[in-house]
Amino acid sequence: MNTELFGIIASFALMLVIGIPLGKYLAKMFAGEKVWTDFMKPVENGIYKLSGINPNEPMDWKQFLKAMMCINLLWLVYGFFVLMYQDKLPLNPDGNPGMTADLAFNTIISFVVNCNLQHYSGESGVTYLTQHFILMFLHFVSAATGIACAVGLFKAFRDKTTNDIGNFWNYFLKAITRLLLPLSIVVALILTFNGTPSSYAGKDKFISLQGDTVNVSRGPAAQFIAIKHLGTNGGGWFGANSSHPLENPNYLTNITEIVSQMIIPIAMVLCFGYFIRRKKLGWVIFGVMMIGALLLLIPSIGSETGGNPAIAKMGIAQPTGAMEGKEVRIGPTATAFWSTFTTIVSTGSVNGMHDSTMALTGLWQLLGMMINGFFGGCGVGVLNYFIYLIIAVFISGLMVGRTPEFLGHKVEAREVKIAALITLLSPFLIMAGTAIAAFVFTNHGSANWAVKPSAWLNNPGFHGFSEMLYEMTSANANNGSGFEGLGDNNTFWNLSTGLLMILGRFLPIIGPVAIAGLLAKKKYIPESAGTLKTDTITFGLMTFAVILVLNALSYFPALALGPIAEFFSMPK
Amino acid sequence: MKSNIVKSIRITLVLTVILCVIYPVAISLAGKLSKGQGNGETITVNGKVVGYANIGQSFTKPQYFWGRPSVIGYNAAGSAGSNKGPGNPDYLKDVSNRIDTLLKYHPYLKRADIPAEMVTASGSGLDPDISPAAAKIQIQRVAKARGLDVEAVTALVNQHTESPLAGLFGPAKVNVLKLNVALDELKK
């Protein structure tokens, strides 16, 4: 056993040790039961008072979604203008310029929807003001939005028949005051005491040992990086994200960052079970997701530690694995580990460059984002999985010839239609987007944009195609990682991925919450011998099969053209 | 709708104060107690800052240990990797050239002695570390350029080898800047 393997086993164990009890806590906390964080109540009441909000006002699903959409639209508009005029605002010690309209459009959508695709570089594209007041603010509130919507869905199934799915503001604020903010403080302190800068000092200049003059970008990064992971956001302070030695200075911070991005997604799944008083359902979903995660994780580790066959052919030793785009203090094993989790949970932060990972690792990364329901982003992971559940219930119902039911409510045409539309949305957006990009690349190579289409790709052949496919997939999945070789700061990519991100965020939130709201209103049917039980291993496997079949059918052709073709063309 | 807009604006303002002022300023104040006062940990020689402990720098002279290839030339104003795919022919040519250069300056090496990280670019372009194996292959060259005993340099490398976290987790590594600073001090 080597220490790199021990490192990821420890990280994995820590995720479970923290994530599982956190799930129980969240269920109690959101249900309004007594918890130890009740000391926050006076603070929350103060915030409600200042905001004119009554947190006990019941909401039906439409009112709930209206409140959610309203505040999200406000952030979109407000953030767009601040990003464009950031050069004229304070807290800009490095004198960075304002954003172009298309870049501001892309960036603000990206952060409002918890995607954090970044077409700028943190060191030169934003100021300390926009990093904190816009981007870090959105790290918190976009995660809280996702969590609040998931809890709204949970609430719909807690009671037998109800119109009330809870108060959006209540869940939203509690997600911040009792989950994201306290954990961020802990993580930010760990980071800053391990070498991540946290002061407001601007760039520094020094003369190196060999006599070169070097500038170093710094800034209040620890605060930002903490919530970037806890909120499954992923947008980095520095351009190189968590592979940057100030953003992720040592192995301890690496463990801290990977664990902190997994605990809330794990907790939310178990929270579902505890919240609706069907503990077993939560654990079955957890099991399916964990099997899915491991099936993506193990081969990724295998292909990264195996090294690059083309470099092996040159006679070079790859004792720990492939090292291009990776850092020595982290190592290929922990980079492969991170790359799987960051793609399944929609964080999209990276501790090594995905563009330089092996062909098959790229395949697993893409697949993780396409499925987007193995744990998934803060709150939205459960919402995505819920759609798979409804499809699985429907198909099982057809197989046994009974009206499909979910948790005591009949699933009828209207709900299945919504679920089907949401399921079809992702492949449609990803495939159509990639097809258009490939078309522009081939036929309009010299279009007069900031980056000419003919210069978009950093790699030739199949890998170049993967760069475009990855960008569209990442945008739709609200992941935010990239095959960063792609020249993406130009009108085409800023507008197209902006559109994909906003559709890929709000429709998969509105759909599940609407289905839950519609189901909750229906008459409750008590369980009988003929009821399809959804908290069994059999049904778990059924859901897993549905996920597999849906995604294989949707994405195999595109994946065959990208990473699979690349794999077969590598020297053996 | 109108009431939602007013509520949205008001809660956004209140949360901005908490999340964008109180929280980061509090962490920043706590950070003052850390090594480097939250500005990043620096390394000084004779009272002059010669670099950041966590930021790699370019070493090309024969009397220094070299770090990894960087596509940004260790310019820490930014950060980036090569983003080259594993089978990219131009990239493989670069790697091949790096191997040749390395062999030229270390004629005593066989190809199989060269660890991959010495011929591949890091993700950030600022990787401050190399593996102990990558330091060992350079000992002979450095010792010769400085007129030092191989044993003395080897001892210094061993002394600067940082073991995995708690001896158990993650890779062992050598911080190139710290090692080179120690080398300079050894001469005196």
UniProtKB/TrEMBL annotation, chain A:
Assigned keywords, A-Z: Cell membrane, Ion transport, Membrane, Potassium, Potassium transport, Transmembrane, Transmembrane helix, Transport
Membrane topology value: Multi-pass membrane protein
Residues that span the membrane, as ranges: 6-27, 64-85, 133-154, 175-193, 258-276, 283-302, 374-398, 418-441, 499-520, 541-565
Pfam families: KdpA
Cell compartment(s), UniProt: Cell membrane
Cited function: Part of the high-affinity ATP-driven potassium transport (or Kdp) system, which catalyzes the hydrolysis of ATP coupled with the electrogenic transport of potassium into the cytoplasm. This subunit binds the extracellular potassium ions and delivers the ions to the membrane domain of KdpB through an intramembrane tunnel.
Family: Belongs to the KdpA family.
Subunit-structure text: The system is composed of three essential subunits: KdpA, KdpB and KdpC.
Protein's UniProt name: Potassium-transporting ATPase potassium-binding subunit
Species, as recorded: Mucilaginibacter rigui
Automatic annotation (TrEMBL), chain B:
Main location: membrane
Membrane-topology descriptor: Single-pass membrane protein
Localization: Cell membrane
Keywords per UniProt: ATP-binding, Cell membrane, Ion transport, Membrane, Nucleotide-binding, Potassium, Potassium transport, Transmembrane, Transmembrane helix, Transport
Subunit structure: The system is composed of three essential subunits: KdpA, KdpB and KdpC.
Family the entry assigns: Belongs to the KdpC family.
Protein known as: Potassium-transporting ATPase KdpC subunit
Species: Mucilaginibacter rigui
Organism placement in taxonomy: Bacteria, Pseudomonadati, Bacteroidota, Sphingobacteriia, Sphingobacteriales
